[in-house]
Amino acid sequence: MAFMRADVNDDSKAEKKGEKNIMDNFGLNTDFSNKDVKKQYYLRFIKQLSDWYSNGKTPELASEDIRFSLELQKQKLQSIGLDMQLQIQKQEGKSNDSAPLSYADNVFVNSIFAKNKRITTSIRNSQKELYIRTADCMMTVIMQNLKQGCVPAPDTPMCCPHCGAPSTLGRLESGCEFCNTKFLMDELYPKIMYFFINDLGDADFDQKKLKNHIVHCSIFFLLLSIVGMIVRMVIGELDSRRLIIEISGYIAGSIIMGVLFGAGIWFIANSFGSVKLLGKQARGLTKAGKSVMFCHKMRNLDPTFSAEYFLDKSISLMKLLVFSENPQELTICQCSHPLPEKLREIVDIRCRNSGINNYSIRDGVCNVSVTFYTDSLHYRSGKVLPKSDKIRMSLRKIIKKPTNLGFSVTAVTCPSCGASFDAEKAQNCPFCGNAYPLEENEWVVTDIRI
Ligand SMILES: [Zn+2]
Ligand SMILES: [Zn+2]
Q1: Which ligand is located closest to the Cα atom of residue 182?
Q2: What pLDDT score does 61 carry?
Q3: The whole model's pTM is what?
Q4: Which range marks the domain in which residue 175 is found?
Q5: What does the DSSP assignment read for 307-335?
Q6: Which of 6, 98, 147, 341 could make an S-S bridge to 114, C-beta 3.0–4.6 Å?
Q7: Higher pLDDT, 88 or 19
Q8: How many domains does the chain divide into?
């Protein structure tokens, strides 16, 4: 079991005793509370996300981190003259609802909610459509809520959901200093912390390709018959009366053969497609043991650490680096080398799988290297190219205090003077000038390769 969402969503397996220990190691709990309420929020967020891509309306339920990442992606697309649309529809036929899983710290619970969706992604420039694909996907949303009976401290740093200014929970409840909007606690939560899309396969494949194969095969057999007939006419075997009877027979025969062979070819191609998909899903499995060990070690030092949290966090950091125009300006980027050019081509990225390569925990500092197997869209010389990439990322964090699920780098409190500020681009507090201890609170990226 590597860091795979497909695994954590399998509730029937989780029931088994043996699996339960592994689940504990990963820091996950099954969470059936308010499933319908969560579903409502899930559907609302998905609607808001499609709206964002079609008309730029900020998704209200999205955390500041998601908003920042969406904004960066949009800026990147615009800077190369592209426009991307995402259409999220219900999947026809049965749709798998996964059992919600969750992980928690002392104050917050992050619930993982996933459903199968049919997603059409299209990218165009000012003249024409460069890319369009409809795929069956698993759309995962991680929703943050307060733990039952928990009220976060008023000095909990938080961005104003309305104007985005860094503030604190207490101040937002009495009215944002910048836009004066007042918030009730249940307007601030739940909040969507992360969302992920996993490609499961081409949705168009079945109908369209099957029809094409049948038509092509029928034409092939018809041509074969015609050639045969011409040969027989030339050598004088056929008279005109028999010709008409034979032609109609050949046409019918060709169609039957076309259906048989076309379906056969389709079946084989489809099986290969599944094998290919299976191969893609299985990448990273070899790293499963390392991943379990890493989580186990980390949970000894930090009881609120969970594999899912680490996965969510690292993918969202990767997205920030990939979409940012100047990734090295971001405080979470501590890479000594500029990002590889191939990584900079990426305009959309979906993570299929991931696993831990290696890790070390020494003197309270954890260094870990993760590999992501992604389905990305690259933009190169005027073309949008779908590619399967392998991205290796190294991260570092000082393990001093337990993971705080409510932490966001976009709103932090300065430990020296107590001021709220955005630590995304400034390492030092703009009010007192002291350096902010980012690595005690957040994972930073020390290297990224493709
Ligand atoms: Zn505000
Ligand atoms: Zn300060």
Answers
A1: 1
A2: 92
A3: 0.78
A4: 13-203+283-449
A5: HHHHHHHHHHHHHHHHH-SSGGGSTTB--
A6: 98
A7: 88
A8: 2
